[in-house]
Each structure stands twice: as structure tokens, then as C-alpha cells.
Amino acid sequence: MDIGVLLSKLGSGMLTSFWIFCITLLLSIPLGLLITFGRMAHNAILRTITKIYISIMRGTPLMLQLMLVYFGPFYIFHVNISSTYRYTAVCIGFVLNYAAYFAEIYRSGIESMPIGQYEAAKVLGYSKAQTFFYIILPQVVKRILPTITNEVITLIKDTSLAFVIGVTEMFTNAKALASGMSSVMPYLGAGVFYYVFNFVVAFVMEKFEKKLSYYR
């Protein structure tokens, strides 16, 4: 197979991996913050529900969660699902899984803030919402950014799990090409694509870390 054709097929799969990555980040980051609020709520019922949710999402494989989201409506509720639902299922599965991880990262960052920050803001007349969004959250983001970067890099590699419900992303294309060619070249090509993607993300996140650094 011509190298151009190989790169073209891997590139088309990379586009699928890329939109899974983008949608997951776009939705799971704010959802994770909402889950954090529930996890730290004074209401015991809400706190327990979110704690159980996080425990399940972190304690079971993402592959299993994807299969449950995709096949669950049919086998549990006897709802007929279309072939296009697999793309929606991938988004739901990835967003729900990563939101749980982000929620715990947020929680650890928020709980690491000194109580004096809240007391000082109260003395200055800030409301609870103003204190959180104007004073606490910017500092939390700075503290948790390295951990967020690790999760984002893991997400790039986890997009390969979409194959389990029939979504053809880059690694699935690489496996099909390697089988047809009886060669490891497609795997090497996929490895290069993943590495470049991870390198770009790590570079961008490092720039953000430096921008947020208080010390030059």
C-alpha cells in the first residue's frame, strides 16, 4: 500500500479520535465542576449520590461503561437503537467517565485552599459565589493544571476504546490496515499520530501553566 494512502486512512481515523477528544473535554470539564459541587454539598443525600457515582465511574473500566451505554437501552429498556447511536453513546460514555475524574481533581484543589481565603473574602464583602469564582477558582486552576494535563493526555489514548461499540477511530483503522498488509507499519504510523497529538497537547498545557505562574 502506498504511504500516502496509509496516512490518508489513518488521518481519517484521527479525525474521529479528535472529535471524541474535543467533545469529551468540552462537556466533561464543566460537568465535573457541577459534580464537585454535589460531592461537597451540605445535603447528605446529594453528597452520597455523587460519591457513589464517582466511585462507580472510577472503579469500573471505561470499555465496560461504553458497552453499557450503547447496549443498555436495548437490553434493559427494550428500546430499539439506530446504528448512528454508537456515536452518541461514545460521547455519553466518555463524558460521564472523565467528568468523575475531573470532579475529584477539582475537589482536591478546592479543599487544599486555606480557610483564611474564605474568611478574608467574607470580610471584604464578597458573596459565596463571588468568593469561589473570583478568588478560589483561579487559584485552584493553577494548582490542578498539571493533574488535568495528565488526564487530558490519557484521554487522547483512551479514544482508541471507542472501537468496542463499532466506532472506527484511528487505532481501529490501523488494526484493519495491519491485518490487510501483514505489516506493522500501520501501527507505527498510528503511534506517530498519537505521539504528535500528545506532544501538541502537552506543549499547549505547559504554556498555560507558565502563563498562570505567579513567579517568573
Automatic annotation (TrEMBL):
A biological-process GO annotation: amino acid transport
Entry similarity comment: Belongs to the binding-protein-dependent transport system permease family.
UniProt protein name: Amino acid ABC transporter permease
Transmembrane helix is among the record's keywords: yes
Domain of life, source organism: Bacteria
SUPFAM superfamilies noted in UniProt: MetI-like
Membrane topology: Multi-pass membrane protein
Protein source organism: Blautia liquoris
Stored CDD domains: TM_PBP2
